[in-house]
Amino acid sequence: MADRGNNLDKLNERARNLLKTLVERYISDGQPVGSRTLSQDFNSRTGTELSPATIRNVMADLEDNGLIASPHTSAGRIPTQSGLRFFVDSLLKVEPLEGAALNLLQDQLRAGDLDSSNIVQLASDMLSELTHMAGMVTVPKVNVSALRQIEFLPLSERRVLAILVTNDHDVQNRVLDVDRDYDRDELHQLANYLNTHFSGQPMAEVRRALLAEMTASREAMNQMMSNAVSLAEQALQDDAANDVVVAGQTNLLGFEEFCDVGKLKSVLDAFTQKRELLGFLDRCEHATGIQIFIGHESGYQPLDQCSVVATPYGVGDNAIGVLGVVGPTRMAYDKVIPVVDATARLLGAALSSQQADTKR
Predict the structure, then answer these.
(1) Rounded to an integer, what distance in angstroms lies between the CA atom of residue 53 and that of residue 257?
(2) Contact call for residues 250 and 271 (beta carbons, < 8 A)
């Protein structure tokens, strides 16, 4: 592996340009690239003339370095995942998003009177619409929100409905399993206690205070306080907020790579089994900038035939979620990366604006 890496560093400009030309043709057509097509594209692009023999020799070197391969059904070549990685890291040029696409994103992601769940859904939709692939956005972590109000309503079979209002806009309903029956008046009293003590505080601080209460001596609490803390601790658990909004999964049907029903099912299952997908995305939350996973680099088997372009988004300096695009490994990285980057910035700005509005 070290020798191969050294060899890649020594690729001359001609080999790099030929690889770049081959990858771009493959991304465009999705078909193995033959010497004649590669020669025409290369000569047109560089204004130079390379003989077919020279091109075949360079392609043989690229193949020896594991950057391209020849499918058994064709004499042409396609880039390997290593070849795509080298292309992305060393040959790709990316321009910032501008023009109509940027204007469309800005118009759609203006916070206005939308709550954060609507803004996140719009962001996922726009990622899909602008890239023609699958867009995904993790729901902002609730601990960056402020608790405005909590209410409890009795349900049947020892269950209680907790209604959380955060930032004056977002409403979350959670069903709690409790160890005894509560009547409406009792639940109203418990909610009043919590609202009096915690309303307006960041959710992270509320949780810390509840944890301190839970670890304090129960003898120091009266029964009402104990019941209120127990219900609130269950209602404010993170699990219900850990979700990912996916849009445009059917766009993948338009790519030849997903014509195989088994491959397509594996990818679609990844979108429905959100716990594993979230585990993968959580790895990106503390990263800096755009993260690109090509094929097996994701470490998540259902996405072995895909590429993922992802990045954190946040409010101020705090990362509160991740967004990205899933598509075939031959995605147009130069077009997808700017969309992901701009969407992250605009989503963060929209959520910041929405939070600022709630404080006025």
Answers:
(1) 31
(2) no
Q: Read off the CATH number of the domain in which 185 is found.
A: 3.30.390.60
pTM score: 0.74
Distance CA 160, CA 151 (A): 10
For residue 328, give Cα distances in angstroms to 251, 284, 293, 338. Answer: 11, 19, 11, 17
Tokens of 105: 């994103």
User: Going residue by residue through the chain (360 aa), what tens digit of pLDDT does each one get?
Assistant: 444 455 676 789 999 999 999 999 999 999 999 888 898 898 888 888 888 788 889 999 999 999 999 987 667 899 999 999 999 999 999 999 999 999 999 999 886 677 788 899 999 999 999 999 999 999 887 555 688 899 999 998 889 999 988 875 678 888 899 888 899 999 999 999 999 989 988 776 787 787 777 666 555 557 777 888 788 877 776 544 458 899 999 999 889 888 888 888 888 888 887 778 888 888 888 788 999 999 999 988 889 989 999 999 988 778 889 999 999 999 999 999 999 999 999 999 998 877 666 555
Two tokens at 123? 């962001």
Whether the Cβ atoms of residue 334 and residue 97 lie closer than 8 Å to each other: no
Strand, coil or helix: 110: coil
Of 305, 296, 344, 343, which is closest to residue 327 (Cα–Cα)? 305
**Domain check: are 153 and 300 in the same one?**
no
- What DSSP state is assigned to residue 287? S
Closest CA to 72 of 32, 35, 36, 38: 32
d(CA 155, CA 148) in angstroms, rounded, equals 23
Residues 6+ apart with CB under 8 A from 332: 27
Q: Does residue 193 share a domain with residue 331?
A: no
Structural domain boundaries, residue 175: 143-240
- In this structure, the answer to whether residues 152 and 27 fall within a common structural domain is no
